[in-house]
Amino acid sequence: MIKIGFEQIHPIPVLPADIVVANLKGLSWSSGVNAVTAFKDTLKPMLRKVQKGRCSLCRRFLYDDYATHLEHFIEKGIHRDFTYEVTNLSLSCGTCNIKKNGYNRTLNSLIKKRARRKGQKASKYCPVLAVKISANAPMPVSSASYRWIHPYFDRYSDNIQIEKGWIFTGKSRKGQRTIRSVKLNALAQIERRALAERLEARPGRLSKLLGATAELDKYRAGHLFKLVTKQLWKRREASDV
Ligand SMILES: [Zn+2]
Predict the structure, then answer these.
(1) pLDDT digit string (tens) for 145-183?
(2) Calpha distance 79→75 (Å, rounded)
(3) Looking at residue 12, what DSSP letter applies?
(4) How far is ligand 1, taken at its centre, from the CA of residue 203, in Å?
């Protein structure tokens, strides 16, 4: 199994007194207004710390700030009121955030098309929610209110197990839904390619073996052995030519 780093975001980050969430209500997330930028810049490092530097969805390590997204669990386009709700925000890798947004978009466009065919008006659907939220109601704070694993209210390992090689297995309906919707099992191929590139960049046999050893917590020994052997053979063939 691969270590997940953190179970859930706990403790909930407490913003300093000069960041007043109530004052941000109505401001657009991408407005570039100073108060919004200060909110994001303050929250990001706090989340990085409590998330142990990992993505809230796939638990891979986050890279630099550009590749790291401040992710709204309940879409801000669906429930604007929760845009600056700390417990609706976590850090995710760009891949997971883009996949999650893509899933939401595809689903809502299908709902819209179906409603149009019936001559009805579609209301936006938020797939992570298990409950309907009426206007001005507070954000739900119980695990049961969510259909996907919530970064604050659910324990990751109760719902998902990550096997070596980045294979995600659902241990609950929530876990299965999250894996399927964010396409977490597509990460195995991305990670395998990155691993091959990392090892390829190592010059000698010993260096490659050391590199492979360092990956034993994430990959099966058999896979690493095969990969190193393949790369060494390729190099030998190339030098024979
Ligand atoms: Zn991720």
Answers:
(1) 999 999 999 999 999 999 999 999 999 999 999 999 999
(2) 6
(3) P
(4) 30
Distance 67 CA to ligand 1 centre (A): 10
Helix residue ranges per DSSP H, the chain = 34-50, 94-117, 156-159, 173-182, 187-200, 205-213, 221-240
Helix (H, G, I), strand (E, B) or coil at 235: helix
Read off the tokens for 26: 């109505």
Q: What's the 60 CA to ligand 1 centre distance in angstroms? A: 6
Tokens at residue 128, please? 């992570």
Residue 86 phi, psi (nearest 5)? -55, -40
Sign of the dihedral defined by the CA atoms of residues 31, 35, 39, 41, in that order = positive
Q: How far is the CA of 65 from the centre of ligand 1 (A)?
A: 14
Q: Which residues surround ligand 1, an ion (CB under 5 A)?
A: 55, 57-58, 93, 96
- Each residue of 18-32: pLDDT tens digit? 999 999 998 999 999
- Cβ(92)–Cβ(57) below 8 Å: yes
Ligand 1 centroid – CA 200 distance (Å): 24
* Domain extents in the chain: 21-184, 202-240
The alpha carbon of 143 and the centre of ligand 1 are apart by a number of angstroms equal to 21
Distance from the alpha carbon of residue 129 to the mean position of ligand 1, in angstroms: 20
